[in-house]
Amino acid sequence: MVKRATIVILSLSLIWVIGCERGKVNDLVVARQELQEHSYSQAEIRLERLIGKQPQNVEAQCLLAATYNRQNKTQKLEATVGKLRELGKPAIDKLVDIMNHEQNMAEDMANVLTLVGKPAIDTLVPVLGSTTEYVREETISILTKIGAPSTGRLKEALDSPDALVKAGAARTLGNIGDKTAIMPLVKKIGDTNSLVKTESAIALYKLGDKSYMDTITSGLGADLVQARRIAAIAIRDIVEKPAVEPLLKAAKDSDIQVRAAVVRALGKVKDARAIAPLIEAIRAKDSTIRNAAADALKETGESAVMPLVDLIKQEQDIATLQKAIQTLGDIGDKRAVDTLEKVYAESKQPLVKQEAAVALNKIE
User: Fold this and answer.
1) How confident is the model at residue 20 (pLDDT cuts 50, 70, 90)?
2) Given its phi and psi angles, is residue 217 left (phi above 0), alpha (psi -120 to 50 degrees) or beta?
3) CB neighbours of 289 closer than 8 A, spacing ≥ 6?
4) Going by C-beta distance under 8 Å and a sequence separation of 6 or more, which residues neighbour residue 179?
C-alpha cells in the first residue's frame, strides 16, 4: 500500500515537472511567434512574467531585450542589458547563438551585444569566422561600434589560423580607425589568402596609408570571389583615383556583385574608355547591373549623352529604353530633347512614352 502511494506521488510529481517544463518552452516559443507577428506588447508581458518566476532564464532575458529594442524602450532595454551582463558568459553565448540561428532577430541581438560592449568581445571575435554572411557582417558591425576596447583582441586575431577571422579583424580595425593597427596590418599584406591580403590593404587605406592602392586594385583579379567583391566595393566607395584598365577588365567578372560595384566605380573615373562598357552594361538583363550602369552614366555626365541617344534610336528592349531615357533626364542635357520628343510622339509602349515625358520635364 505504501509502495503504491509512493508511486502515485512520484508519478504526479513527474507530471507536474513535465507540465512546468512545457510551460517554459511554450512561453519562449509563443513569445518568438509574437515577435514575428509584431505583437511586441504581448511578448513583453509574457516574457516579463516568465522572468519574474525565472530571473536566471538567459533566453527569456535575450528575447525580452529584443522586445524592448523593437519598441525603442531605451531605459528598459538598458536595464535588461545590465542583467545580461550580470548573467555573464552564458547570456552572451545565448545572444550570439540567437544571432547565428535566427536571422529575423539578428539585428536585435546585434544591438544588444553592442550595448553589452566589452564583456562580449572575446566571444564575438571568433564569430568573425562565420561562413554565414549576415552573421559575419553583423559581428564586424558590433565590434566596430564597440570600438577601441576591441582593438587589442582584434590585433591578436590577425594571427588566427582562420582566414575569415583574420580578414574580419582587418576590416574591423580599419573601420575603427586605430592607427596602432597599422604595423600588424602591414604584416598581413603578404598573406597567402587573397581575402586577408585585400582586407588588410583596404584597412590601411582607411587608416591613411594610400601606398597599398595597387594591392586593393589587384584584388579585382583575386582567386576568391569574396576578395574580388570587397576590392570592387572599396574602389567604388573609398579609392579616390582608381585606374581604369583593371576596372574595364573586371566589368566582365562572372559575379554580379563584383560587376555591379565595378560598373558604379567606372562612373567616377570619367574616362572616355568607360562609356562603351557602361552602355553595354545598361543593356544587361540583370536589373542590378542595369541600375549600376545608369548611375555611372549619370555621374559621367555630358560625355554619356550622345552614346545614350544613339542607344535609344536602335534599342528595342523596353527595360533598357526606360533606363536609358531616365538617365538622359537625370543628366539634363538639351541635346537629348529631339530624340526624347520623337520617342514620346512615336512610341507605342506606354511605359516608354511616360518615361520620355518625365525626362523631357526634367530637361526643360
Assistant:
1) very low
2) alpha
3) 256, 259, 260, 263, 281
4) 207, 208
Q: Do 132 and 89 meet the contact criterion of CB atoms below 8 Å apart?
A: no
In whole angstroms, how far apart are CA 289 and each of 98, 303, 361?
Answer: 34, 20, 26
Is 81 in contact with 58 (CB distance < 8 Å)?
A: no
pLDDT above 90 covers a percentage of the chain that reads 91
CA distance 84 to 109: 12
Tell whether the torsion through CA atoms of 67, 72, 75 and 79 is positive or negative: positive
Check residue 14 and give its pLDDT. 46
Instruction: Give 60-92 pLDDT, tens digit per residue.
Output: 999 999 999 999 999 999 999 999 999 999 999
Amino acid at the residue 90: P
Q: Give the sign of the dihedral formed by CA 41, CA 42, CA 46, CA 47.
A: negative
Distance CA 339, CA 363 (A): 12
Rounded CA-CA distance 11/106 in Å is 41
Of the candidates 282, 345, 284, 337, the one whose C-alpha atom is nearest the C-alpha of residue 306 is 337
Residue 137 confidence (pLDDT): 97
184 burial level (CB within 10 Å; 0-12, 13-18, 19+): buried
Please give the model's pTM, rounded to 2 decimal places.
Answer: 0.85
| 229 vs 241: CA distance, rounded Å | 18
Mean pLDDT of all residues in 33-47? 96
Q: At what angle do helices 318-331 and 287-300 cross, to 10 degrees?
A: 30
Of 316, 326, 318, 305, nearest in space to 351 by CA: 318
Quote the CA–CA distance of 83 and 190 in Å, as a whole number.
44
Strands (E), 228-362: none
pLDDT at 271 over 60: yes
Give 304: exposed, middle or buried? Use CB within 10 Å, 0-12, 13-18, 19+. buried
- At residue 100's C-alpha, the angle toward residues 118 and 36, to 5°, is 110
Q: What amino acid is encoded at 362 in this protein?
A: K
Q: At residue 270, does pLDDT exceed 90?
A: no
